Amino acid sequence: MGLEESFRRKKNRAGLQECDLVREKVKPVRGLARSYVMKHIARAIPVRSLWPLPAPTTEAGDRRDVGIEIELGGLKPARVAEVVAAQLGGEARQTDKHDHVVEGSRIGDVKVYLDTRYRKSGRKLVRLGVDLAEPLVPVEIVTPPIAPEDITLLDRMNEALREAGAEGTRDGILLGYGVHLNPQVKALTLEGILPVLRAFAVLEDLLRKMDPIDPSRRMQPFVDPWPRKLADRLAGEDFASLDALMDAYLQEAPSRNHGLDALPLFAEIDHDRVKAALGDDGLVSARPTWHYRLPDCRIDEDGWSLAYEWNRWVMVERVAEDAALLERLAKGFAAHRDQLTATKGDWAREAGEMVEQAGVLEAGA
């Protein structure tokens, strides 16, 4: 090696070390700013009060109700049904070994059961296995469609369940308990569906960063992020028809295991199309609702509520109803995706700032 080459290599190494040192100094600053923005956004979401939907009625003028599913541990189904009946009224009745229903409550009939499809198996060994695994299987509470303002009744019910010993997803690394919100869609049209899908595509990073889901659920395949290619298409592609939109979604994400699952909605519109995309193993119950699966169930934590998770969903719909803001976010997302070094956290921060500046987080937005 000649003297000139040796000098050049030493200089390059020093330059790289200097750049690395600067990068190490900058990273925590960017991380601190991002962390601050995420916490600020999360704290702006009310925990006790409810935000109304920006479009509270359907195209036909009917109230947009929401069905809610709550997974929890620590209690047997029979005990959960007793607490539900005590809080909401009605009569708890056992309908099968692991199934109960609270009939005639203030919000209608509420189902309570062990959350496994094997609980009603006709095979003796399978049902014996369910009996043995019961302490590890979540109990699920399933409400009928209710008025959004009745979510406050469920939060009071959850407080009673917490006092009775209910456990949330953070109580164990293998639990993975979630909450599913099923708000009725505004309209079964391209105009009623695409803006919400587009809003979720550009906000999913923010939703996941502002209040990260528990590792027990991240390790499981039930609430995966949308594939980036789907997000790109939803954010930037012009869809000529609802059929074209459904085809794009089914091509990029033919699975129910995402934070927002649109397959039940698409099955309501065109069941054969969804069945063809998923094959024989794709079991989808058609209904004219969104299926928002992202939230954790933290029923045993004082600072958590269904109202908080509902308001996070309303944030998505508020963005969907603001065409100008949605366009800015979509363009910003596309620009972010064109950057080689940008991270999901960078976009979450940028999206959060845009959402806050637009007044989306204000109570009367």
Instruction: Tell me the radius of gyration.
Output: 23 Å
How many strands, which pairing sense, and closed or not: the largest β-sheet?
6 strands, antiparallel
Number of strands: 8
SSE ordering: HEHEEEHEHEHHHHEHHEHHH
Strand neighbour order, sheet with most strands: 2-3-4-5-1-6
Q: Give the termini distance in whole angstroms.
A: 69 Å
Task: List its salient traits.
365 residues, globular, 13 helices, single chain, two-stranded antiparallel ribbon, 11% strand, 8 strands
Short characterization:
By secondary structure, this protein is α+β, with helices and mostly antiparallel strands. The longest helix has 42 residues, at 3-44. It has a domain at 66-73 and 138-357.
Could you please describe the fold and organization of this structure?
The protein has a domain at 66-73 and 138-357. Helix 5 (190-210) packs across helix 7 (228-236), helix 7 packs antiparallel against helix 8 (242-252) and helix 12 packs antiparallel against helix 13. It has 365 residues and is an alpha+beta fold. The chain contains 13 helices and 8 strands. The protein has a 6-stranded antiparallel beta sheet, covered by helices on one side. A two-stranded antiparallel ribbon has the order 7-8. The chain is globular and about 55 Å long.
Topology:
Elements: H1 3-44, E1 66-72, H2 77-88, E2 91-96, E3 99-105, E4 108-114, H3 124-133, E5 139-142, H4 151-164, E6 179-183, H5 190-210, H6 215-218, H7 228-236, H8 242-252, E7 260-261, H9 263-269, H10 271-278, E8 291-292, H11 306-321, H12 323-337, H13 344-357
Helix pairs in contact: 1-13, 2-4, 5-7, 5-11, 5-12, 5-13, 7-8, 9-10, 12-13
